[in-house]
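Worked example 2:
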Amino acid sequence: MKRTFRFASAGGLLALAVSLALQPQTSQAREAQAILKETCMGCHTPEGENAFSRISHQRKTPEGWLMSIARMQTMHQLKISDEDRRTLVKYLADNQGLAPSETDGVRYALERRLNTVEQFDDQTKQMCGRCHSGARVALQRRPAQEWEHLVNFHLGQWPSLEYQALSRDRDWFDLARKEMVPLLAKRYPLDSKAWADWQKSMPKAQALVGDWTFSGHLPGKGELNGVMKVTAAEGDHFTLSVDGQYADGSPFKGQGTAILYSGYEWRGNVDIDGVKMRQVFAANGAQLKGRMFETAHDERGLDFIAARHDHPQLLAVQPGYLKAGSETEVSLIGSGLNGTPSFGKGVEVVKVLEQSPQRVRVLLKAAADAPAGLREVTVGALKGQQLAVYRDIAEVKVVPAFSVARIGDNGGSTPKVQGRFDAEAWGRSADGKAYRIGVFPAQWKVEPFDDRAREDEDVKFAGSMQADAGVFTPGDAGPNPERKMSTNNAGNLKVIAAVDDAGKAHTGEGHLIVTVQRWNNPPIP
């Protein structure tokens, strides 16, 4: 039985009343309905009370709805103010969004983790993933008829599609209609128990107000922690204050605002030490988890996890490793940290240097004969984090193993996109099993990836690697008369990390493609 979403139907408003204060939501609902009727009804026909063709048969993330409206503006000359667009995105994401479980495994696209190597079946990769990410497909829900409309839209909007790579060797349109439409309708249906259940239990935005301890890691800089204060503003909006520091003592402080969509999709804009950054988090009870990245450079981002102060939780061990026979300072980050910390067999707490509900700093010593492997860390009744004790490094991995950087600037409007890397050490336990030790300081360099890269002198022209930080800055955009045939500064490079462990050198390799500018940069790639 086909189901349509009805804007401001009794059931819809009742579900939203669980997550939002009644008056702001009622006002927003009336305003959104007026915008839909006045702005969208010229093309989208009514289908009963407050329902419209196409619009009422889709569910998307906030970014997905923003892209849909932007497409109407660019392709169909839709006239809409920024304020009305924000109102529609908020209303549609709240009423026709995705449940938390429906974004599992593909949040990397929302969080702008653009060096992720996707894992989809071959058919999806070839039919959909050759032009955009598979995640863009997985982050929306439609019935079969609407998936077929999307296929028709693709061919109508881009008629040369059937002649492009991975299309000309097959009947793309026939395969899309007869195989992909049923597959997508089954895999990503409009109706789902997860969304129905989430609408009934969607938490109030007020539940996120308070103080949060956070932990993070920024490639090229290191670990950080601090406190983020969240204050309620009108509706589902918040004001933020961030007070933190990196492991080297440098500050991580700033102010900003945020908004909550669909009861869990946190989107923030903050100014950290003079740099504008965005927050894309998923709220899960008393935990926020996701990524922060620079507004102008999404490659410059950090992993982020936070726990509300009234919900005891152990978030991180910084650093998360200790060499057998040595001493080091370790910080435990979390909320409600109370009790004696324990680090497992062979690890002694020599001294507690600092203790508060948000941070416990200790001096640890590992016995010379401490067995290599992972130990569970506890503070009182709290657990969930590990400490790696190692005797020797067995392997160094460059993370990400495959990365893309992009030339830019040189008088143009498109900035350079850096490559940013970590050196991840791995060990082997007594039973021979590999385990992750953690991120180590390293010395970095690039080399030609193959003979062609060597012949073309890619190392000379493609950019430069910051030796002590693992940050690669690509070359300028545009033709380079110093290169063969005056080509641009693209390149194919090996990224090499050298880790020193007590005088013993360990190296790891990654692959970096330096390519041209990213002209099309949508919210979901």
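The two ends are 33 Å apart (CA to CA). The chain has twelve helices and 28 strands.
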